């Protein structure tokens, strides 16, 4: 059993196929680099192909034998998500780990291509759709997992079923962000429940990075970006460890949540994180799942009556 002082993954992961969204920067880049070092095959799903190729080349400079490929994915566009999933499914028959990492944080009010509020549409609906579309490969792969990235902001989140798209005139970007990350955590827990219902060996887990000065901060205030975040955060290579542990630690259990173990879960070694009470409500989870199915048009191949 790993403890707070001896966390490490020293296994060769050459047989693993890892799919990471938002792999070209921040936590996604550090996570990709880790799996490249461990000899896994990594699919880097990114919106900007030029940045993705640059990130791939940087990793190859450090690990020339790394098995990396890039694939275009814009989580703010359902057409792009379907195209990406179709390309993946045509090329691969298995998938060991899907890491739903990409996201946007507190931008000015804007919408996805299909008209969803950008944060809810990208962070939650986009990953809900992608996961469902590649689920056949996950279900075919023994002991596969889905890792969904949440945030400490999920603690301030509230699922407002009367205004999921934050269309009210008094749009507040932080509550909207909190809702999207709470939705990610609820999705992870509900997916875990549904996988258990069909006796699948696949599992669904979640992770959060604590505080980390990544590109997600680009829309934050000067105070948040340059003063508060550096004081209460750890670097991306440390902040990525909860995701990494959730993705490949063999002791990780279905439905678990991982984050830093220090004060307020802002920094520290990766351990089990506190799950907000709102993320545990099954009725909310079922309703959110059904809302996501209706909005995205994506259903999961769990069989009649299992959803």
From TrEMBL:
InterPro entries: NAD(P)-bd_dom_sf, Sc_DH/Rdtase_CS, SDR_fam. NCBIfam families: PRK06197.1. It comes from the Bacteria. Belongs to the short-chain dehydrogenases/reductases (SDR) family. This is Oxidoreductase. PROSITE patterns: ADH_SHORT (PS00061). The keyword Amino-acid biosynthesis does not apply. Keywords: Oxidoreductase.
């Amino acid at each position: 059993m790993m403890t707070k002082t001896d966390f490490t993954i020293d296994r060769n992961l050459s047989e693993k196929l890892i799919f990471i969204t938002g792999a070209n920067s921040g936590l996604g880049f550090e996570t990709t680099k880790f799996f490249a070092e461990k000899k896994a095959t990594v699919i880097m799903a990114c919106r900007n192909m030029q940045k993705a190729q640059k990130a791939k080349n940087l990793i190859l400079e450090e690990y020339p034998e790394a098995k990396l490929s890039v694939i275009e994915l814009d989580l703010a566009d359902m057409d792009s998500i379907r195209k990406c999933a179709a390309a993946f499914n045509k090329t691969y028959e298995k998938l060991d780990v899907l890491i739903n990492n990409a996201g946007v944080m507190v931008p000015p009010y804007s919408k996805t291509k299909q008209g969803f509020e950008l944060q809810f549409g990208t962070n939650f609906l986009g990953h809900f759709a992608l996961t469902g579309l590649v689920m056949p490969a996950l279900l075919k792969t023994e002991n596969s997992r889905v890792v969904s990235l949440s945030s400490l902001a999920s603690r301030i989140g509230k699922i407002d079923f009367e205004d999921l798209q934050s269309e009210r005139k008094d749009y507040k970007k932080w509550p909207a962000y909190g809702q999207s990350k709470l939705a990610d955590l609820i999705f992870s827990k509900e997916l875990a429940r549904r996988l258990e219902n069909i006796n699948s060996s696949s599992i669904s887990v979640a992770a959060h990075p604590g505080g980390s000065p990544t590109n997600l901060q680009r829309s934050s205030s000067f105070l948040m970006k340059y003063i508060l975040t550096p004081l209460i955060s750890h670097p991306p290579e440390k902040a990525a460890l909860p995701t990494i542990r959730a993705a490949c630690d063999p002791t990780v259990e279905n439905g678990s949540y991982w984050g830093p173990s220090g004060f307020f879960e802002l920094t520290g070694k990766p351990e089990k994180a506190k799950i907000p009470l709102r993320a545990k409500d099954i009725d909310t989870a079922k309703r959110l799942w059904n809302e996501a199915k209706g909005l995205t048009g994506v259903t999961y191949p769990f069989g009649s009556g299992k959803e």
